[in-house]
Amino acid sequence: MGRATLHPPVAATLAVGLRQLVADGRLPVGGRLPAERELAAALGVSRVTVTSAYRRLREDGWARSRTGAGTWTSLPDRSGVVAAFVPGSPRDGTVDLTYASPSGPPEVAEAYAAALEALPHLLPGHGYAAGGLADLRARVAERMTGRGLPTTTEQVLVTTGASAAISGALRAVVRRGDGVLVEHPTWPNAVDKLRAQGARVVPVPRDPAAPQGTGGFPAALDRAARETAPALAYLVPDFANPTGAVLTVDERRRVVASLHGRGVVVLADETLADLALDEDDPALRPPLASVGPDGAVLTAGSLSKSVWAGLRVGWLRGEPSLLARVAAAATREHGSLPVVDQLAACVLLDRLDDALVGRRERLREQRDVLVDALRERLPTWEVPRPPGGLSLWCRLPRGTSSSAVTEAAERHGLFLSTGSRFGVGHAFDEHLRLPFTQPVPVLLDAVERLVRAAADADRAWGAPTTSRTGAVLG
Ligand SMILES: Cc1ncc(COP(=O)(O)O)c(C=O)c1O
């Protein structure tokens, strides 16, 4: 930190800056902060300013002091935070950007009508289908084969969304105390699952904006694998949540070769793989499992983002022996899977490519409207335009905290997830995930609420003005 990073009110920006250094791990937790007098002299500010910043950090749990002994960094207690990432019910007059899941298209109802017509053929049977209906597994296998990953029906297990596929794979491969690499930031529920299982979560930075000079993400993964000897790596190669980042063909090869070479099982989550949004996007990138030997990569997929999360239909691809173990555990847990949903999923998969054309077009428009509006109304924010997926991963100006913005936003009827929800520990408080899954008028309304919330947060925390006009709007 230097004097140049501090803006009035200086004590508040100093507190935010120090807090972000602790959250990022750049200042070690439990490390001693400089004496107040020393820091004041180094930054050219008054001692009262530093005293007040340290007090703020202590009040928020980011520092502890002993009279006369000094001040140490610490982390706020988050033990009371419930780790579950499920959106709440809609409330009139508010905008909820805590979830990134598009509404269901009319084809869902049509598919269920067709499923009900097909149902009588199955009624004479017992209704249990361990591993899923053969017709559905065959369609998933066919779709994977079409994407360049030759797959048989036996290599596909139907699951209750990608969530159950991921949980099943983790239970089959990861033991308590095992290390698991996750890209960082990542889908929060994966981290919650790993924690619940007693895994050691090892975050590996995957920053789509980072220069590639150091070998980028594959090199970082390789380093982490070498140093921590993990059992598994959980990756979202296509249009990751929250960044929308995609691995290049070369990165895919390097990642799989290095992790397989070090005996690390890769779990590729393809939940968002259908959501390429750039019209000039090059041809489909090969699935991660297609660039490694058999058994090196497990693949989870779902209809949740390509069609609708309410379906709860997903799948896991892997070697039949591993799938049998996953299926046995799933059967012990909840018996079997709903038949009508699987029949509807067959119909939806048959029409998926056509349906995706419209879905991508809508998402592309929503992405572009949100990016343009944010860049216009909050010009000091870094707002990237991701190549696909469902959300923007915005970097806030230095000194602005996404928890402060999220807190302020609620007073304007806007619900957000803080950036740190997508990190391990307290990282990413300077980021905000903004999904573009809702219609354009809702997104534009959300931006106006956000401008007001950001201005409130800046006033409370003392970051530079974020609105172009400088005034509080509305
Ligand atoms: C990367 C990723 N994987 C999996 C899921 C959950 O998928 P499903 O609804 O199929 O369980 C999500 C939902 O947000 C996600 O973003």
From TrEMBL:
Signal sequence coordinates: none
KW Metal-binding (keyword) present: no
Residue intervals of the HTH gntR-type domain: 8-76
One MF annotation (Gene Ontology) recorded for this entry: transaminase activity
Keyword Zinc: no
Keywords: Aminotransferase, DNA-binding, Pyridoxal phosphate, Transcription, Transcription regulation, Transferase
InterPro entries: Aminotransferase_I/II_large, HTH_trans_reg/aminotransferase, PyrdxlP-dep_Trfase, PyrdxlP-dep_Trfase_major, Tscrpt_reg_HTH_GntR, WH-like_DNA-bd_sf, WH_DNA-bd_sf
Lineage: superkingdom: Bacteria
Family named by the database record: In the C-terminal section; belongs to the class-I pyridoxal-phosphate-dependent aminotransferase family.
Designated name of the protein: PLP-dependent aminotransferase family protein
